[in-house]
Amino acid sequence: MYSMTTQEQIENSFLGKLIDWKEFEIFVSKLYKESDEVLVEHNITQTGKSGTPRQIDVKITQRTKLHTYITLVECKRWKSKVDHQVIEVLSAKIEDLNASKGVVFTTKGYEEGAVNYAKFKNIDIFVIRDLAEEEWGAPGRFINFYIQLYGASFQSLKPINAKYFSFDKQAPPKLDLALNISKDQKYDEQQTLFADLNRNDRGPNLIQVLFEARVWLLKNINPANNQFNKDKTIEDEYISTKVLLDFTNYKYKYLVYPNGVVEFNQIEIELLTNISTTIFNYDRGKNLDFVLIVENYITNQKNFVSRTNLNNNVILSDPIMEKKDDDKKDALINGSVIRAILEPYVSFEVKPGIPIKRTNDVVMQLGNP
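-> structure tokens emitted (369 positions)
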């Protein structure tokens, strides 16, 4: 899996946009502005009961019909972890200003003594950080994989050693195996196969059998001959394969023709495959001004906080639910090759200048339904 270098992590860091402490305080204040009933004040000074002026980074006041709830917030955009002293100073502010709650936000984490004291004083402590790769959802912020589309057409169909049983002793007709198929996958009833000359046991349609063989060939033959080189220039590839479709042990080998019945032995198929490869690259953060994690350092609760390029509103998500292991096992891995087989009616043209590769001949034994 792709892993970013340290330099790439710095360049792609949304947290890096919060350059200094002042911008960090403004950012934190916006986390509380979702409701009109909440008054958010930034960088104010109030005098407490002790007569001491107290500087407050962010003050949140929520008034109800019965009481007022005040939260004091300390914002520390530091290069080191928050220590015990910060929690102690905030605890003194809460007491002196008759506040209801205290909260600390930082970007670097907390010393052990600060965590223990915050628990004792019922002060919430948060870390704001960039998302880890797994928090973007697999395979990470940057998605890159290859898409290979497999198209295939029958260039020719030629019955080999077919037998013709005439109802009126006429000469056998020229066998026309026209592959007429529409997008709604309706097959021509005149190309239904039977298990015997009397047409008592109806089987599948010949076109259906041929197209099912086409899918098997694309899954089992051509991918083995197409050793995909992820470092090469991506282009279309063309592969030609001669296939002998063997009806020897197949129950339904009889096809009704005017005035007679044809018994198939083998059908020689010239299969031309087109493999078209494209690279898919996507940055999940492309349309975001930022997206960060707000993590409670005590309870480990996490929330996303984000803002899009088109909207100045800061959006705080509901708490993030941890994904179960079952949700992760089928996750896409960067660098994967995703192969898809196109429907038979999807046509393609051979581009000039690209050689057609030739594979070994293939004999495909039909098995009974």
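The CA atoms of residues 3 and 9 lie 10 Å apart.
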